[in-house]
UniProtKB/TrEMBL annotation:
Belongs to the acyl-CoA dehydrogenase family. This is Acyl-CoA dehydrogenase. The keyword Oxidoreductase applies. InterPro entries: Acyl-CoA_DH_CS, Acyl-CoA_Oxase/DH_mid-dom, Acyl-CoA_Oxase/DH_mid-dom_sf, AcylCo_DH-like_C, AcylCo_DH/oxidase_C, AcylCoA_DH/ox_N, AcylCoA_DH/ox_N_sf, AcylCoA_DH/oxidase_NM_dom_sf. Transmembrane segments: none annotated. Pfam families: Acyl-CoA_dh_1 (PF00441), Acyl-CoA_dh_M (PF02770), Acyl-CoA_dh_N (PF02771).
Length: 386
């Protein structure tokens, strides 16, 4: 799109200028150290970018999903990884949509001001995986508190968050009419919980993504931390997923453009057989192909944003945007690596780092097969398989 026609150019320019303070070397070093980009995250919070979607009455910017997605896209397009921060952008939506007036007043202004981090959402469990309604973590009401027991896995940013949205079963599966009933969500104050009923074990992994196993042993949560009605938590979580998927699609789009830009630059500069490698159609066509795929995915991402911001159903578009964008960014990553030849493997080019980072989105927050399954069943009317 022409720079002058882009309604989000102002946001893009502002995020880019913040990101420019954090060059490739910064993120490379953090990756090598398996660290967390504290200074970068602090800068994003201080500038208010992560409270974009919090309404103005609570101190946020009251922007839509489209604007929020542009922020995420630009972060990844600049060479960073929004995986360190994206929870802050969408987890607050659960409180906003389903929290009580008291909860909103208590948490949202603090989140908007960047004084409180709500980076984590605890859903996945080791023994049940994608089959979420079978989760085994329970929360039992007792003397004005809920007592939580169980285990979660792959829960991200817990060590860099103050609050976590937790999904637990409050009514046993055998006692509910529909398997999606009987689960509830809670705000867990991590500052109080860790070491007092909740244990955190980091999971070393392929990406520099802070993610953990969580163990709950009689963790007590005050009753007032229940969000919405008891038993309706699964529905509330699902409500938030469209925003999450669309934002992550935008991150993949940002990655996709980053890979294409780097591939083009290298293909123009690298001279072999007395000419730039980009002169060979065997090198330039895959880059053109990757660019086309990213552009196409981008259209679906903005379609999902448009529907979400108009308060219309957007489950199909959000899922398809996530699918297309994750696929396009992964293909662009492969092309970029191939274009760089051996240097694609060298840390100093950052291609291998971004390659690892973008691969995650074929699996999390929802794996490709589960998107196929959603489309097959809900859009095409094929028989339910599980
Ligand atoms: C780095 C990282 C960060 C994460 N952060 C979070 C987080 O913050 N919070 C959180 O709650 N979770 C988080 N997750 C978990 C993530 O959402 C899950 O890994 C993902 O949803 C897949 O679930 P699973 O790993 O249990 O795979 P499984 O459910 O065990 O599935 C394994 C494979 O089998 C396929 N499969 C399973 N069943 C079917 C079927 N019926 N038909 C076809 N294929 C099927 C899946 O598509 C997948 O490819 C994170 C994961 C990672 C790796």
């Amino acid at each position: 799109m022409d720079k002058h026609d882009d309604p989000y150019q102002e946001i893009r320019d502002a995020v880019r200028s913040l990101c420019a303070e954090f060059p490739d070397e910064y993120f490379r070093k953090i990756d090598e150290q398996r660290g967390y980009p504290e200074a970068f995250v602090d800068a994003l919070m201080a500038a208010g970018w992560l409270s974009a979607m919090i309404p103005e009455e609570y101190g946020g910017s009251g922007l839509g999903l489209a604007e929020a997605s542009v922020i995420m896209e630009e972060i990844n397009r600049c060479g960073a990884n929004a995986g360190a921060v994206h929870g802050q952008m969408y987890n607050m939506g659960t409180v906003l949509r389903h929290g009580s007036p008291e909860q909103k007043q208590k948490y949202l202004p603090e989140i908007a001001a960047g004084r409180l981090r709500i980076q984590s959402m605890g859903v996945t469990e080791p023994t049940t995986g994608t089959d979420t309604t079978k989760i085994k973590t329970t929360a039992v009401k007792k003397d004005g508190r809920y007592v939580v027991n169980g285990q979660k896995v792959w829960i991200s940013r817990v060590q860099h968050s103050d609050l976590m949205v937790l999904l637990a079963r409050t009514t046993p599966l055998a006692e509910v009419k529909k398997k999606s009933e009987g689960m509830s969500i809670f705000i867990v104050d991590l500052r109080e919980a860790i070491g007092k009923g909740m244990e955190v074990r980091p999971i070393p992994n392929m990406v520099n993504h802070e993610t953990n196993e969580l163990f709950f042993d009689n963790l007590e949560i005050p009753e007032e931390n229940l969000i919405g009605e008891e038993g309706r938590g699964f529905k509330y979580i699902l409500d938030g997923l469209n925003a999450e998927r669309t934002l992550i699609a935008a991150e993949c789009i940002g990655d996709g453009y980053w890979f294409v830009d780097r591939a083009v630059k290298y293909a123009n500069e690298r001279v072999v057989f007395d000419r730039p490698i980009g002169k060979n159609q065997g090198v330039q066509f895959p880059i053109a192909d990757a660019f086309i795929e990213v552009e196409a995915a981008n259209l679906m991402r903005f379609r999902a944003c448009e529907l979400f911001d108009a308060h219309k159903p957007c489950g199909a578009e959000a899922n398809m945007a996530k699918y297309l964008a994750a696929k396009a960014s992964w293909e662009a990553a492969n092309v970029c690596l191939q274009t760089h030849g051996g240097f694609g493997f060298a840390n100093e080019y950052d291609v291998e780092r971004k390659f690892r980072e973008t691969r995650l989105y074929q699996v999390a927050p929802i794996s490709t097969n589960l998107i196929y399954s959603y489309v097959a069943e809900h859009l095409l009317g094929l028989p339910r398989s599980f």
